Structure formats: structure tokens, C-alpha cells
Amino acid sequence: MTMPSPLLRRMPVPELPRLHQIVLPTPWEIGPVQIYLVEGDPLTLVDTGVMRPESRRALEAAFEELGYGLDDVQRVVLTHHHSDHMGQAQTLRDAGADLELWVHEDDAEDVELYSRERDERIELYSALFHEYGVPGALRARQEEHIRGWIGTEAPVCEPTRVERRLRDGDRIPFKDFELAVLHAPGHTAGHVLLHEPQSGTLLTGDHLMGEAVPFTESYFLPGSPDLCDPLQRRPRFRGLPAYLDGLRRLRRSTFRRILPAHGGIVDRPARAIEEAILFYEVRVQRIERALERAAAATGWASGWDVWRLLFPKLDPVIQMHTRMVMVIGALDVLEEARRIHVERNAAGTLVFAPAR
Ligand SMILES: [Zn+2]
């Protein structure tokens, strides 16, 4: 057996000589995940990789090159709760690291209560899809399908304890510099960016990546329906409008480089920000057009009507989920921009109509 060769990129930022990028394998199509080690007081990892033997070996090899063991880690800061980011936090603790784990307060429960089922939010998504008109029989088949494949996958993550719940504007201090926490919800509710202003460096996790744009989440939050909403909708994390707001906020600052969790190093941050905004603006427009067509006959259409019109050839059991979340996100953006009207029909389904 050949050892996986870890990719250790020392000092990607000349002004921050104690910061290194470590590239770890993942079992997924997204490819490797890039995590960051900051040497010095305290020895800190930003993200940790998936919990898999090959990922652990790659991390150990990179650490060895720098003269450390896994048990030397004193602090882990997570950009967000997904398993390629938090996966090895408990592994480090099991290896003897006496570390503090810092993560945004909105992702902290997902870290402490991690399970594969919880991570998929199966019931929450099913309830959401119900509200957007997806038929019950189809939702049941979809749930069964998801439960089927998560039962066969080797574990990629373990729950672990959180010591510090971060908020927007918090500081992460080091000996020679500090990182500012920017809350950037969208991909997850508690996603954060870490900003080092002197060097113009932004660690972006999955919010901005080298060669891809992240999906954005949308799911019901605990709590009773919003009394201010005439449609009495349950409180919900609306990932896509939040994501676009976050990108537009980033537009107002100048960064010299972006260190993402996937896709190398981004030397032209402004262009990456514009491309991600454009990517979603185009999709929102496409969904607005589809809604106009789907609603042409009766004046109103559900999210499910829009999905069927856009993706007539796709398998609704296997290929519906991510695109349906995209449709819901786009409808959220259009509603906030007052480009559509929303009502609840007699069956309880939300229906939408173009505003013009
Ligand atoms: Zn992620």
C-alpha cells in the first residue's frame, strides 16, 4: 500500500509566515479539503478534514513535516459544521490534544449533537417540501432513499464538545496578529469567514471557493409560526438571500487573497465575489422565468410546479433535493425583492405569482 502524499503548502501568505495550508483527501466529488494551521500561541487548526483513516494519515504526515503531533493542537476554529470541516476534531482529542473548539453559535448544536440523520435534516426538509407542494408519496420515497444510503456510508464525523460560541465581530487572538470573525450565513446558518486585515487575507471556508459555488441551505428552525407573517409560516433559515447579502457586504471591502476550503488559493478576490453573485443571480432569473410559465394558466404555481417545469427529465426521488432547495432559495430572494406574490391555497401549499 502506498502512503497518501499530503500536500502541505507552507506560508501561502508571505506576511503571515506562521500560517500553512494542509490539503486532506475526502471521499467525495468535491475533492480534497484545505485546512489551515497557525503555528504559535496557541497552535490552532482552522477546520480539520473528514474522519477517515486516509485523512488522518495525511494530517499526521503534514504535522510531522512541521514538527508537531496531533496532540499538540490547542485550538480548533471551525468555519462551519459540515463533516469535511469538523470531522477530525474529536479524532484530535482522542489522539490526546487538549484543545478548545470554537465555532459560530448558530452551528454549535450541529457540532455537539452531530449524527448522520441530523446532518441530513430529513424530516425538516420533508416538511419544507410539503409546504412547497411536493406530493407525500414522493417525499416518503425520497426519505427512504436518503436513509438507505446514509446507512451504508462509513462514518465521516463524530460529535464533539464546543468551548466557545462565536459571533460576528469576535476576535481570534494569536501572538503576532488576530483574525476577525465575520458571520456569513448561507451555506450553513453559522458559517464564518476569518479576516486578517493587515495582509488582506480572508479565510472563506465554503462561502467562496476556488472553482465552485456552494449550495445554500434552507430549513425550518425551532419555534412557532411568525405572527407578523399573514401566511403563518414557521421560522426558517433562508440560506440564499443570506448568502447573497453576505457577498454584497464583502464587495465593500478590499481583500488581497482568499484562502478557501476547496480549490487552491484565490488571488483575485473581487472577481470571485462577483462570479458567485452572478452565478446565483442567473439562477434566480431562470427560476423567475419558469414561475411565469408555470403560473401562466391559473396565475399561481407551487415550488414543485416550478421544479417539474425546469427539470422534467430528472428522477424526482434521487435528483430533486438540491434543486428543490435551490428553487425555494430563489423564491425567497424573489419574495424579498417583491418580484413575486405568495399565498397559501386551500390544501395548505404555498403558491406564487409573478408581481408584474
Ligand atoms: Zn460545507
Distance between the termini: 64 Å
CATH topology of the domain at 7-114 and 157-267: Metallo-beta-lactamase, Chain A
The dominant shape is globular
Structural classification: alpha/beta
Assign the CATH class of the domain at 7-114 and 157-267. Answer: Alpha Beta
Please count the helical segments. 11
How much helix, percentage-wise, in residues? 25-40%
Give the strand line-up of the largest sheet: 1-2-3-4-5-6-7
Instruction: Tell me, rounded to a whole number, the average pLDDT.
Output: 94
Number of strands: 16
Radius of gyration: 21 Å
Order of helices and strands: EEEEHEHHEHHHHEEEEEEEHEHHHEE
CATH superfamily of the domain at 7-114 and 157-267: Ribonuclease Z/Hydroxyacylglutathione hydrolase-like
Strand content: 15-25%
Bound molecules: zinc ion
| CATH architectural label of the domain at 7-114 and 157-267 | 4-Layer Sandwich
Largest sheet geometry: 7 strands, mixed
Which residues sit in consecutive blocks of at least 5 with pLDDT less than 50? none
Layout of helices and strands:
Elements (H helix, E strand, L loop, with lengths): L6 E4 L8 E6 L8 E6 L5 E3 L6 H14 L8 E3 L5 H4 L2 H6 L5 E5 H8 L3 H5 L1 H10 L4 H17 L11 E3 L4 E3 L4 E6 L8 E5 L4 E5 L12 E3 L15 E3 H13 L5 E4 L8 H26 L8 H8 L10 H16 L3 E5 L5 E5 L2
Parallel strand pairs: 4-5, 5-6, 6-7, 11-14
Antiparallel strand pairs: 1-2, 2-3, 3-4, 8-9, 9-10, 10-11, 12-13, 15-16
The structure holds zinc ion.
The site of zinc ion has 4 residues, from loops.
Characterise the protein shown here:
The protein is an alpha/beta fold and 356 residues long. Helix 8 packs antiparallel against helix 9, helix 9 packs across helix 11 and helix 10 packs across helix 11. It is globular and about 70 Å long. The protein has a seven-stranded mixed β-sheet, covered by helices on one side. Strands 8-9-10-11-14 form a five-stranded mixed β-sheet, with no helix packed on it. It has a domain of 219 residues: Metallo-beta-lactamase, Chain A. Zinc ion binds next to loops. The site of zinc ion has 4 residues, from loops.
